[in-house]
What we know:
- By secondary structure, the protein is mostly beta strands.
- It contains 1 helix and 12 strands; from the N terminus they run H-E-E-E-E-E-E-E-E-E-E-E-E.
- The protein has one helix spanning 17-29; strands spanning 42-43, 55-61, 64-69, 81-83, 94-96, 101-102, 113-116, 122-123, 135-136, 138-142, 148-150, 156-157.
- A 5-stranded antiparallel β-sheet has the order 1-5-4-2-3, with no helix packed on it. It has a 5-stranded antiparallel β-sheet with strand order 6-11-10-7-8, with no helix packed on it. Strands 9-12 form a two-stranded antiparallel ribbon.
- It is globular.
Amino acid sequence: xxxxxxxxxxxxxxxxxxxxxxxxxxxxxxxxxxxxxxxxxxxxxxxxxxxxxxxxxxxxxxxxxxxxxxxxxxxxxxxxxxxxxxxxxxxxxxxxxxxxxxxxxxxxxxxxxxxxxxxxxxxxxxxxxxxxxxxxxxxxxxxxxxxxxxxxxxxxxx
Length: 158
C-alpha cells in the first residue's frame, strides 16, 4: 500500500486552522491498521534539565549532538524528539521519534491538535502572527488527557 501525501497549507495561521485540522485527520485516517511506531533506539546526553514528557531539540554542542528543550520562541530549537523520563543536565535519556506516543503529559483534550510551546511543552494554540521570529510547529494529536501521538511537523518561522 502506498500512502499519498496531503497538501498542507504553506503556512499555518488562524484563518486556515480548520483546513489544517482536517488535513491532519485525513493523514491519520490513511495510516493502515496494524501499523505501529517504535521508539528511536537511541540515548543522547541532555545539555539542560528535561522534564518527563519534554519535547527536545537535537543540537551540536561543540561538535557533539545533545538534547535541549524545544522552544517555539527560538527557530534553532524546533522539536526533533521527546523523552518520557526526564533528566538533569548531563543525563542520558531514551529518546522517541515521530509516530511514538508521549504518555507523560497531562491536561490534553482528546482529539485536539497540539503545537510546540515553550520549554519543551505543548500548546493547543499555535503562536500568533504577531509573534515575529517565533516558530509554528505541529507536534501531534491528543489520544487521551495524558497521551499524544507525536507527528512532527516542519517548523515555520513567523
